[in-house]
Design goal:
730 residues; alpha+beta; six-stranded mixed beta sheet; 23 helices; single chain
């Protein structure tokens, strides 16, 4: 995230030159312990360098000011093992006992750039995983008795580790039986079930064979950084590119979504407006079997990892790529069609802010309410820095949507839907708030030295001054909480939903390549001994290796009232039951999360005081809920979900399992038809597809009714505090 404090810190960080880093990690490497019966994967020099520098960054610039010591080492080991094998399907008790020798040494290893211990652990895991696949493939053709009253324990998290291979075999055999009984209940023939499951396990075997040291390094760093705090994250080069493309809501390529199916890359969707769409030469379902850059030779990509294939197809705008295509419906042995495309910048409009208008009737009068759905706080910083006047950003998109809602749709109110919006750019949260207030402070940021900066909206005038509401849920986090909190603190609108996530920390994205002297990168490239895709070639013609990116927690958010959003999040004015388990999702469920605290209140003037009318809004909301079938069923669904969460095993008796499934399906169908009847829709039968137009968002619908109440109560007939609100709602 971009913010002034982080920029100043980064300037100081970039003054540091790690001139001895590569030499230190390469001078006298310790031999890695090998695992018998598996192709051992080992770390490389650039990963050793990155590991060392992440330790330095965490110890010097992370907000926690934490020392990487034996205590951290112990937690990292436990987390790493749990990340690999959360339900204890693979490791034996003897493996876990052996790993104890690493408990208090990982901190020293990471500081020295040694990754031998966690790579060894992963190789043991890979051996067990391959043993599971091999054993399971042999068990698929076994004749099972589906009339037995045995059961399969699918959640073994709280159970002890298996003490022998025989014990693990029993677990895996029951897993195979469970998958077969599921296929059998679906009504497919036994021979087909065996074929389906065999292909499934062979695919797992194939994917396991494609695991590389970048995958392992990512898993190790995830365990390490998340032990420090939940939001300090390292991204390897591939993941860093994906993260930045997601933030920018754009990428450069042909404009097609791709997926791997039976070792072959398939086009799952053509993105409107992109080169693939405009060419009219490609369709969803087409398979790509070869890729060539410009006039270069084709490379056969069958069996490649999907990210490697995608990297070949993506590329800078204006460059040519040729594809060998097996059209949908044709046999894979058919002669490929050659398609040439010129890459362009693709804007992912479907993942950007959108609007819709709904009309609700009250006292015989129609009210039009605009709903703006914002999936994230995104911004194409690269395009902005390059001076692109049309760079992609949340605020720019929403501004255009509001203009349409005001001038073309003539809406009476606007609701911002931030449900499941996990945040993004801090700058965008501030700028977006500025569309709804005149000007003033939006958020306070405290850095690792305790210095507090007040970030303000400095643009005078609001784009929308009418009635306003914000919808949030448990997945609304970070920038979403800044925006919702500011709207609430200014009295600018009503917040509706559930308590938000509670992520009140600030991360700065740091390109690891920027921390290392270019000459060291060139020497490292020579050590690695190969060209790395995406890098600019150095003097010797070898591209410097890409080291990835770290999002480092360097500061903390505070609302303008002085209250942190950390842990507590934003409490809505109008509450709904949470669809997500509050005890499993949220910052307050993270062991390494920073605590809640307060700082001094900022100097700001509220737009309005909505507190006098909130009790009446809540009262009317509760009255509707008491009469609402949707509300009753929602609460019932939540209760059923909590009950299912406690289950750790399931029957393998076909008749019993089918009866349970049929009962659940019957209850779900009954509830669906009760709700459809209430809305005047015809009933559906088992297996019927419900049209998208007939879907119903109960929370959205009730939120619109709350907005209607807000408009009615914000009238000059009420006391002065509400008159103040009315003057804003013009």
């Amino acid at each position: 995230m971009d913010f002034k404090i982080a920029k100043e810190m980064l300037k100081r960080i970039l003054l540091v030159t790690f001139t001895a880093a590569v030499l230190a990690c390469h001078a006298s490497p310790q031999p890695q312990q090998m695992v018998q019966g598996v192709s051992n994967i080992v770390p490389d020099e650039k990963q050793a360098l990155v590991c060392k520098e992440i330790v330095t960054l965490i110890e010097n610039y992370n907000y926690k000011k934490i020392k990487v010591n034996d205590s951290i080492s112990s937690v990292v080991l436990d987390k790493y093992i749990k990340d690999l094998d959360p339900y204890k399907y693979y490791f034996l008790a003897s493996d876990i006992k052996e790993f104890e020798k690493f408990r208090f040494s990982l901190d020293d290893d990471f500081r020295a750039g040694s990754l031998n211990a966690p790579f060894y652990i992963f190789n043991v895991y890979l051996k067990r995983y391959n043993e599971w696949i091999a054993y399971s493939l042999n068990q698929i053709k076994t004749k099972y008795d589906f009339n037995q009253n045995d059961s399969y324990v699918f959640d073994r998290e709280k159970m002890p580790w298996a003490t022998s291979t025989t014990a693990l075999n029993d677990i895996w055999k029951k897993k195979v039986k469970y998958e077969l009984v599921n296929l059998k209940i679906a009504g497919t023939p036994e021979a087909k079930n065996v074929e389906t499951l065999t292909k499934r396990y062979q695919n797992l075997k194939s994917q396991a064979a494609k695991v590389n040291n970048q995958d392992i390094f990512q898993t190790i760093m995830d365990a390490f950084t998340e032990t420090i705090d939940p939001h300090t994250n390292y991204f390897n080069p591939t993941n860093a590119q994906a993260f930045n493309e997601d933030m920018a809501r754009s990428f450069e390529g042909i404009g097609a979504r791709l997926q791997l199916e039976n070792e072959v890359l398939k086009i799952s969707e053509i993105i409107p407006g992109g080169p693939a769409f405009k060419s009219k030469l490609l369709s969803a379902g087409d398979r790509i079997v070869g890729v060539a850059q410009g006039s270069a030779e084709f490379e056969d990509i069958i069996g490649w990892r999907i990210e490697n294939s995608v990297a070949k197809i993506k590329g800078p705008k204006g460059t040519k790529v040729r594809l060998k295509i097996i059209p949908v419906g044709m046999e894979l042995s058919s002669k490929p069609v050659i398609v040439e495309l010129v890459r362009e910048k693709i804007v992912m409009e479907e993942q950007s802010a959108k609007k819709k208008v709904k009309t609700i009737q009250s006292d015989g009068k129609p009210y039009k309410i605009g709903i703006i759905t914002v999936p994230a706080f995104y911004a194409d910083f690269k395009a902005a820095r390059a001076g692109d006047p049309n760079y992609k950003s949340t605020t720019r998109d929403v501004r255009l949507l509001i203009d349409t809602l005001k001038n073309r749709d003539k809406v009476d109110a606007i609701v911002m839907d931030l449900r499941a919006n996990g945040g993004g750019s801090l700058v965008e949260a501030i700028d977006l708030t500025g569309l709804f207030i005149d000007k003033g402070p939006v958020v306070q940021v405290k850095d690792i030295k305790g210095a507090i900066e007040v970030d303000e909206d400095t643009n005078a005038g609001a784009i929308w001054t009418g009635p306003f509401g914000v919808m949030v849920d448990r997945l609304s986090a970070s920038a979403s909480e800044i925006f919702a909190g500011a709207i609430q603190d200014y009295g600018r609108g009503i917040i509706m939903g559930t308590q938000t996530y509670g992520k009140g920390t600030v991360q700065s994205s740091i390109d690891m390549n920027q921390l290392v002297n270019p000459s060291i990168l060139q020497r490292l490239a020579a050590l690695v001994g190969k060209n790395v895709a995406g890098g600019a070639a150095g003097k010797d013609g070898v591209a410097p290796p890409q080291l990835g990116q770290i999002n480092l927690t360097m500061a903390k958010f505070y609302r303008i009232t002085g209250s942190s959003t950390q842990h507590k999040g934003v409490m809505p004015d109008i509450e709904f039951p949470s669809l997500y388990p509050m005890d499993k999702i949220g910052e307050d469920t993270e062991k390494s999360a920073l605590p809640w605290d307060e700082i001094k209140r900022s100097n700001f003037t509220p737009v309005a005081d909505l507190n006098p009318i909130k009790p009446e809004l809540i009262k009317l909301h509760k009255e509707r809920m008491a009469q609402s079938l949707d509300y009753k069923i929602l609460n019932q669904d939540i209760a059923d979900m909590k009950k299912r969460e406690k289950e750790v095993s399931i029957t393998l008796n076909q008749a019993k399992l089918k009866a349970e499934r049929d009962s659940l399906e019957a209850k779900a169908l009954e509830k669906t038809n009760l709700l459809r009847a209430e809305r005047g829709l015809p009933p559906v039968k088992k297996g019927d597809k419900i049209n998208k137009e007939e879907s119903f968002d109960f929370v959205e619908e009730e939120s619109l009714k709350v907005m209607l109440d807000l408009m009615k109560f914000a009238t000059p007939n009420k006391d002065k505090s509400v008159v103040k609100a009315t003057n804003e709602f013009k």
